[in-house]
Design brief:
Structural class: alpha/beta
Low-confidence stretches: none
Number of helices: 12
Pathway: Amino-acid biosynthesis; L-leucine biosynthesis; L-leucine from 3-methyl-2-oxobutanoate: step 3/4
GO molecular function: 3-isopropylmalate dehydrogenase activity; magnesium ion binding; NAD binding
Bound molecules: 3-isopropylmalic acid, magnesium ion
Strand content: 15-25%
Radius of gyration: 21 Å
Order of helices and strands: EHEHHEHEHEEEHEHEHEHEEHHEEH
Function: Catalyzes the oxidation of 3-carboxy-2-hydroxy-4-methylpentanoate (3-isopropylmalate) to 3-carboxy-4-methyl-2-oxopentanoate. The product decarboxylates to 4-methyl-2 oxopentanoate.
Distance between the termini: 20 Å
EC number: 1.1.1.85
Number of strands: 14
Catalytic activity: (2R,3S)-3-isopropylmalate + NAD(+) = 4-methyl-2-oxopentanoate + CO2 + NADH
């Protein structure tokens, strides 16, 4: 029996607990059938944590996350907490985890699966075969930069401000993640910024270029303004392999890339910290790209695939379990190819099912594929 793998599971709010339930089914199956034993802790985050203990990211959750080998995160937020003061919003749960654990590189794959080509709002010819990895910086930039605030001026008018700031080391380390990934893919990085209007963007372009020249001359590097990238994603998405961007542009462009695939309900992500030179380990958090979807929460109709695919990324990136990750990904693709669809990816002629039927079907497929 391999050593226990310590997982912290944070279901969060909205559809988080429902889709996480389907992952628990997969974990149980892997436990039984593939002798992968996980030691699972649960924790509070987001609105639920605000209600229970008055903080969107309690210290106890951060401590558990530090102690775990990997964190599987659901989603946070909902209308119930929308009117809370800015400093108490559920979203701070994920932001604090990223910051405190030093999770600086967010990997967001946008892959158009063949069975779902028709679910995209773009023409099938444009999106068929799209396979993009957005690498987003997640502990710097305008999300955390100081000064920030809303101040009242002497004339009584208010003024809001944020600071987009990057140290060159922050740019270099996330650029290395993007170049390393590109080498395992189609060997191309498109680095996005607004070097034409932003000083931090000018530095971004310069540093990415330096890292490229010194360490990755074999990888193709292209610099692109972020607005142009948004346009190109919609018109010629197949030109992209790895897209590298700062916290804000990465946030926006990863949603856009995700939309190309036809459903946010299908897309996972991984956020990685630096490898500790002594232990060889790194902190890592895995979460679906979709949010808490309060409009459908509790109805049993949410698509569990993104959460399950996030677990596949966890198997691959935190534990090197490539074979098990591939098995799970293949099982999900098989279920889709067989015609089952949750509401978000429903197509004419397909069978519409809810969260748990989808989860059960994936387990059945795992069973078949591994027989
Ligand atoms: C994301 C989300 C978060 C972000 C929110 C919930 C704070 O949009 O993970 O992309 O902006 O980073
Ligand atoms: Mg976002």
């Amino acid at each position: 029996m391999p050593a226990n793998k310590k997982l912290l599971v944070l279901p969060g709010d909205g559809i988080g607990p429902e889709v996480m339930g389907e992952v628990r089914r997969i974990i149980d199956w892997m436990d039984r059938r593939r002798s992968l034993s996980f030691e699972i802790e649960e924790g509070l985050v987001g609105g639920g944590a605000i209600d229970a203990v008055g903080s969107p990211c309690p210290d106890e959750t951060v401590a558990k996350a530090r102690a775990a080998d990997a964190v599987l995160f659901g989603s946070v937020g909902g209308p119930k907490w929308d009117s809370l003061p800015f400093e108490q919003r559920p979203e701070l749960g994920i932001l604090r985890l990223r910051k405190d654990l030093g999770l600086f590189a967010n990997l967001r794959p946008a892959v158009v699966l063949d069975p779902l080509v028709e679910a995209s709002s773009l023409k099938p010819d444009i999106v068929r075969g799209v396979d993009i990895m957005v690498v987003r910086e997640t502990v710097g930039g305008v999300y955390f930069g100081e000064p920030r605030g809303v101040e009242t001026l002497p004339d009584g008018k208010r003024r809001g401000f944020d600071t987009d700031v990057y140290h060159e080391d922050e740019i270099a380390r996330v650029a290395r993640v993007a170049f390393d990934l590109a080498r395992k893919r189609r060997n191309k990085v498109t680095s996005v910024e607004k070097a034409n209007v932003m000083q931090s963007g000018r530095l971004w372009r310069a540093v990415v270029g330096e890292v490229h020249k010194a360490e990755y001359p074999d990888v193709q590097l292209e610099n692109m303004y972020a607005d142009n990238c948004a346009m190109q994603l919609c018109s010629r998405p197949k030109q992209f392999d790895v897209i590298l961007g700062n916290n804000l542009f990465g946030d926006v462009l990863s949603d856009l890339a995700a939309a190309l695939t036809g459903s946010l309900g299908m897309l996972p992500s991984a956020t990685l910290g630096a490898v500790d030179p002594t232990t060889g380990k790194r902190h890592a958090l895995y979460e679906p790209i979709h949010g808490s979807a309060p409009d459908i929460a509790g109805k049993g109709v949410a698509n569990p695939c993104a959460q399950m695919l996030s677990f596949a990324m966890l198997l691959r990136w935190s534990f090197g379990l490539e074979e098990d990750a591939k098995l799970l990904e293949a099982a999900i693709e098989k279920v889709l190819a067989g015609g089952l669809r949750t509401a978000d990816i429903m197509q004419p002629g397909m069978a519409r099912v809810g969260t748990s039927v989808m989860g059960e079907a994936v387990v059945r497929e795992l069973e078949k594929l591994s027989a």
